[in-house]
Amino acid sequence: MPALILDGKALSTQTEVQLKTRVDRLRESTGKAPILATILVGDDSSSKTYVEMKGNACSRVGMESIRVFLDQNINTEELLNKIHELNENENVHGILLQHPVPPHIDERKAFEAINIRKDVDGVTCLGFGRIAMGEAAYGSATPAGIMTLLRHYEIPLSGKHAVVVGRSAILGKPMAMMLLAANCTVTICHSKTTNLPELIKQADILVGAVGRPEFIKTAWIKKNAVVVDAGYHPGGIGDIEKNGLNEVASAYTPVPGGVGPMTINTLIRQTVESGEAFLQQI
Predict the structure, then answer these.
(1) Catalytic, out of 7, 54, 119, 204
(2) Does the annotation count 192 as an active-site position?
(3) Which of 25, 83, 131, 227 sits most deeply, having the most CB atoms within 10 A of its CB?
(4) Is 44 helix (H, G, I), strand (E, B) or coil?
(5) Per-residue confidence of the chain (282 residues) as pLDDT tens digits?
(6) H/E/C letters for each residue in 251-266?
(7) Dist CA 263 CA 269 (whole Å)
(8) Is 7 a catalytic residue?
(9) Selected catalytic residue, list 7, 82, 119, 121
């Protein structure tokens, strides 16, 4: 029996219809729509593409977006000033700082400057802490999108052994916390983990988030595991080897078309939620 494809592109398209209805309803009741501000520092072509994709997603659901382009050579203080300006702008309901920023900028300090109520990409320590403690917050967009995808396809989570390969602050670590909250038993691995193939072989649910092309081999994967590939590299390559995956996994996310669309979809959904929270209290 072929593996189930966890189609993030199809689900995000379906969800956008629902989000558009919510935005239309908000505009009718308040005269305003949610606004997402995206900040891009420098002229990295991939980052430009991602910012454009996020702006297009805003348009599809009837939201508005403000695109802030900053020079490659600005310093951290100048970036913080722009973030503070957007924090104070009552018409902005979500702020996204496109990752990565140039190396001379303190990215973590910039993330922490984002108001928690506008942290719709889930990048602040406070947001992560709240998620880890089971409190309300906007989740990091990629892991939150993965959880939405797993729930949509009714993938059993409770009691399962989940192995997350990757420990980044905005992907691997929050992914582990979200799976733990869903009653998985979670193992966090990374590129320096010893006996990595043996640990991956134990996974009922495997999340590849290590940031290396096809770092995880199909031969390491347990028969009938659910496989989530959160990586993307040029040529449509993920963090997990594609060859033979359809035969070993019970379900998997394609690359592209799996996790990527859900990341953007989560960002948009959380901006809509923020807009509703702001505008409905006016």
Answers:
(1) 54
(2) no
(3) 227
(4) coil
(5) 789 999 999 999 999 999 999 999 999 999 999 999 999 999 888 899 999 999 999 999 999 999 999 999 999 999 999 999 999 999 999 999 999 999 999 999 999 999 999 999 999 999 999 999 999 999 999 999 999 999 999 999 999 999 999 999 999 999 999 999 999 999 999 989 999 999 999 999 999 999 999 999 999 999 999 999 999 999 999 999 999 999 999 999 999 999 999 999 999 999 999 999 999 875
(6) EECCCCCCHHHHHHHH
(7) 10
(8) no
(9) 121
Residue 123 DSSP SS3: coil
**If we measure between CA atoms, which residue out of 121, 122, 221, 125 comes closest to residue 165?**
221
What gap in Å lies between CA 118 and CA 87, rounded to an integer?
Answer: 7
Selected catalytic residue, list 7, 98, 204, 270: 98
3-class SS of residue 94 = strand
CA–CA dist 180, 221 (Å, integer): 21
Does the annotation mark 43 as catalytic? no
Kindly list the structural domains of the chain, giving each domain's residue range(s) and its CATH number in brackets, ordered by start. Answer: 31-115 (3.40.50.10860), 141-260 (3.40.50.720)
Residue identified by tokens 């999340």 is 207
| CA triple 265-97-34, angle to 5 deg | 50
Q: What does DSSP say about strands 185-189 and 161-165: parallel, antiparallel, or unpaired?
A: parallel
Instruction: From 225, 229, 251, select the one nearest 240 (Cα to Cα).
Output: 229
Residue 23: how many other CB atoms lie within 10 Å? 23
- Cβ neighbours around 104 below 10 Å, total: 10
